[in-house]
Amino acid sequence: MKKKIKDLAERLKSGYRWNKNIGEELVLKFKYLTPLYHSHIIHKEYKSYTNLTPFTEEQREITQFVLDEIAVKTGLEFKMVEGT
Question: What is the pTM of this model?
Answer without folding.
Answer: 0.38
